[in-house]
Specification:
heterodimer; A: about 150 residues; eight-stranded mixed β-sheet; 8 strands; about 25% helix; about 35% strand; B: about 210 residues; alpha+beta; Nuclear Transport Factor 2, Chain: A; about 20% strand; globular
Chain lengths: ~150, ~210
């Protein structure tokens, strides 16, 4: 009887450990198991600048969502974002790709607009600002004067 | 002081847009938005290159003519509304009117003088997209030093009339630029303070 108790304890402990591992890998890997808790909005940028799924979507410096998918659409970057239902995006909002620091991670910043019309699930942010290509700027400056 | 510097800085980047308006000269393909922009640009170009309107004594008249041409192509209300963004809704009709007027004057004051520095830069229309009521016109300015400047106009159609509500130069949007500045000024102090700042800027002598 005593031996059985010990084995049960070890078993339970193992199961608990595996559950913890699973939880950790989902959390740290930013995976979604139960589907998204919000709605999707797309935006097309002429230059994605290396944005990838999992990148943050930010309003006023606060992370409100994440990039769900990045694809090519007519040789432009089409970015699908996952936003929570309680964050409303106006029809005239502007999405821009920014860099953390000089060479840091890329993220998407949304500057809210003033329109009464809101972007619904599956809608599109029309006004976008692509990543600033530092290299191109430098080369324009360096090689510009021919 | 920093505010002043920032406003001046962003105004300078705006210059490119108006300069572009003046410069668009190359032949273009069909499409109502492109046609409208080309027409306005050509009109401004005629004004700027008119020898009868050159010189400081004709500045006033030239400015008036250019403003007239720009007014026909720009939707100032949409531009101002987008720039004020969420602070637009709380304004009264009178305040809105006043702000549209001030904002227009600010852009005019900043860029009109620079238009005179046009020296035959070429403009090529690269493309146009139309998506329902919205459209974009992309153009490239070729400077003498062979640098290309990419300019994108965003237009909206109302009653068959395409009007510009935003200009992006090298991917930097005018509206977004002002939206952020207006927002930060209003949050830090107040709307009245922003209006006072704009008034001061507009009244400033060169």
């Amino acid at each position: 009887m005593k031996r059985f108790d010990l084995e049960l304890c070890v078993g339970l402990f193992m199961i608990l450990g595996i559950l913890c591992m699973g939880y950790l890998s989902i959390k740290l890997g930013n995976l979604e198991v139960l589907g998204s808790q919000g709605y999707e909005v797309e935006a097309v940028f002429s230059n994605g600048g290396g944005i990838k799924s999992g990148s943050s979507v930010v309003i006023a410096g606060v992370e409100i969502g994440r990039v769900k998918q990045v694809g090519l659409n007519d040789y432009q970057a089409r970015v699908l974002m996952d936003l929570p239902f309680d964050v409303k995006i106006q029809e005239d909002a502007i999405a821009s790709i920014k860099t953390r620091g000089l060479i840091g991670d890329k993220f998407i910043e949304i500057t809210p607009g003033g329109s009464e019309e809101l972007i619904g699930p599956g809608g599109r942010i029309r006004d976008t600002q692509s990543a600033v290509d530092l290299e191109e700027l430098i080369s324009n400056y360096v090689f510009g004067k021919l | 002081m920093i505010e002043k510097y920032r406003i001046r800085h962003c105004l300078c980047s705006l210059l490119g847009g108006f300069l572009l308006m003046v410069i668009l000269t190359s032949p273009c393909f069909a499409g109502a938005p492109t046609d409208g922009i080309k027409k306005t640009t050509d009109r401004i170009l005629v004004i700027v290159s008119d020898p009868a309107l050159k010189g400081p004594e004709n500045r006033e008249k030239r400015a008036q003519l250019i403003r007239q041409a720009v007014d026909e192509q720009f939707n100032w209300e949409a531009m101002t509304k987008r720039s004020l963004a969420r602070h637009w809704r709380g304004r009264t009709e009178a305040e809105k009117k006043e702000f549209i007027d001030l904002f227009g004057k600010l852009l005019e004051r900043t860029y009109l003088d620079k238009v005179g520095s046009y020296s035959g830069e070429k403009v090529i229309y690269v493309g146009e997209t139309i998506d329902g009521k919205y459209g974009t016109v992309t153009a490239k300015i070729l400077t003498h030093s062979r640098t290309e400047v990419l300019v994108r106009y965003r237009l909206k159609e109302t009653n068959g009339d395409w009007r510009v509500y935003d200009i992006s130069i090298e991917g930097v949007s005018l509206v977004n630029n002002y939206r952020k500045q207006f927002n930060s000024i209003i949050l830090r102090s107040s709307y009245d303070d922003l209006v006072a700042k704009l008034r001061e800027k507009v009244a400033e002598k060169d």
